[in-house]
Amino acid sequence: MDKQRVGVIGGGQLAWMMAMTTKKLGIDLLIQTPHEDDPAVAIADEVIFAAIDDPQATEKLAQKSDVITFENEFIDLDALKKLENNSVCFRPKLSALSPLLDKYQQRSYLQSITIPVPKFTTLEKLSLNDFGFPLVIKARRHGYDGQGTFIINNEKELSDLSSSKVNSLMVEEYVDFERELAIMAARSTTGEIATYSLVETYQKDQVCHWVVAPANVSETIQLEAKKIAEKLLTELDVVGIFGIELFLTSEEKLLVNEIAPRTHNSGHYTLDACDISQFEMQLRAVTGQPLGSTKLKALGAVMVNLLGYENSHDDYQEKRNKLAQIPHTYVHWYGKKECRPGRKLGHVTSLIKHSNINPETIAKQIESIWYPQL
Ligand code: ADP
Description:
The protein is α+β, with helices and mostly antiparallel strands. It has helices at residues 13-19, 22-25, 55-64, 77-85, 94-97, 103-112, 155-164, 219-235, 270-273, 278-286, 317-324, 359-370; strands spanning 4-9, 27-33, 46-49, 67-70, 120-122, 135-139, 149-152, 169-173, 179-187, 193-195, 199-204, 207-213, 240-248, 254-260, 300-307, 329-333, 344-352. Strand 13 (240-248) and strand 14 (254-260) form a beta hairpin. Adenosine-5'-diphosphate (ADP) binds at residues 118, 136, 138, 143-149, 172, 174-175, 180, 203, 206, 245, 257-258. Adenosine-5'-diphosphate binds at residues 118, 136, 138, 143-149, 172, 174-175, 180, 203, 206, 245, 257-258.
């Protein structure tokens, strides 16, 4: 049989980690990305250099691929619909993405299918009688790593932000959550659904620093998160993998913060801690294969992002060597040529082999090796 050819829109670390599993599955990976030094460029079987939202480039990608999937959702959906109408196979299909790409529309869609979300509105409709401070303002599109998310504490901050931002914004209540959780869920062409463990994510300044799998929460919460994931993927008739970020409130209520219609940072631990990683799972789903096991191979795992903390071209080899010496620990370095503060340069996963090991202690050990001033 000929090798299946999967086209991926995006060439960052998510595509790079997807490309690690293509040999095992007998798949050729083609990517569309604008940057020559993007992580996946060096290991993809073919690269089309073009912007993520360039539909002509996607048309070329489609001519060479059996199926197209996503590692980046900043696409031009309307232009791609023309390709889909001309029989290009997108997985997930575009109608599964269209309610999700704008954060306000995403919230409205989730509410319409009775998935619980924080109270929200548009900036234009905001009434301060309904929303007290602090409140949260978000760019409706193109936000990532907390860059389009602003916690607003008073009317001055609100008017400064509203007048300085040209992009359309949405408003939501500030959720005083107990924990932040996330779950990865995949759905196959036959409607089979596989969910990974519910995990806990730790953010600082709106950016994820580390993830612990599994989350230390009740079985009821785990089941509820799984049901939310299953409902969403079924309603949207998804083929592929989605990441679902959740808030757990002090009243033990789950609220969906955000849906990523692709692999997600909260699932990176699966590369080392599960038989089938989230990246392999996406490829299995979109190429029509059965999904397989999402079980953890260890008692648990902790994944720590290696975030840039300075402008440099260093490859931090010495620090990486030190990190790799921690027992049962795997270092993934994305090979980005330029380090900038906040940029995701790599991640480290440490498997928890004994119940007396505290994941938070390991996360702090990793961060104390990585960040200079800690
Ligand atoms: P991005 O899409 O850029 O990742 P998110 O909407 O996920 O942005 O927000 C990033 C982080 O900001 C969240 O993980 C959370 O810590 C915080 N945050 C976002 N929305 C709220 C909210 N409504 N209430 C409290 N904190 C929030």
